[in-house]
Amino acid sequence: MASANLPDSPLLTSAKIVIAGGFGVGKTTCVASISEIPPINTEAWMTAASETVDRLDPGIDKTTTTVAMDFGRLTIGPDLVLYLFGTPGQPRFWPMWDDLCRGAVGAMVLADTRDLAASFPAVNYFEQDSDMPFVVCVNLFDGVLHHPLDDVRAALALPAHVPLTACDARDPSSVARALLTVVEHAMSRTPRPTAGALAAR
Amino acid sequence: MQMRYWKVRPYVLTAGRTRTRQPLLVHTLVSVPHYDAVFAAGLLPEARSLYEQARRAARSVAELSAVCGISLGVTRVVVDDLAATDRLLVHSDHDNVDFRLLERLRDGLRKLA
Question: Domain count of chain B?
Fold first, then answer.
């Protein structure tokens, strides 16, 4: 399985950005296009986990709980790795979101302008239930922006302080630019180290 | 993924524990500071599999869970046990996202953009 070599140093740190959005908005494509490992579909681990439990009860033929959630990895430098986690889109997996989002740098909600409603729940979650910085990113399915971003912002009822951008989920550099928006938005909300703290380093 | 059928419920392996001493997030990196083959041979299969995988390269908790086919919850507890005796190193200095980390991320992503 995926085992591309990582620099192995005790100083290696990791960061995480969550990719959210409704079913079929391109989360998997987005993770896959920029990840250096084939995205690991965590469906496997959740399914296997529940099967081991279910298997013990003969007669109960419960279908396994599958969670469609992918993650990928991107080595940013010799001492930093970025993980991208796609959230399971279905509402019944919402309790998992808190766990998944803990410690994340920020989130990117992918939206498809042909089905904006699919991304409402994700926008809602980050607006209401989380204080994590997030941006909304319109996935340009055929490389074309069909609606002005201002219209999309109005349709999503997105407050002015939430950045709205667009990307082509198939294009790694486009995805990198979208992720950059997330990081820059997070920076704008993170206090800069004071001069004293810098000197202490 | 290879399906395994356990003879025992997963949480038997953790003696019913679901919590860990330190926060182990899905992206928390884990590595083996000093590999010990004798120690590895004495481990239960699940712990051994995690130990061997983390030995190859630093891996996130989620990757270890997926690669070893062990549920996330069990992975967390077993990793935590191994870390308590310093057999595994948990790279935990990223618990708080700080400005410097964001700068490094920004600079790295700019190169890819």
Answer: 1
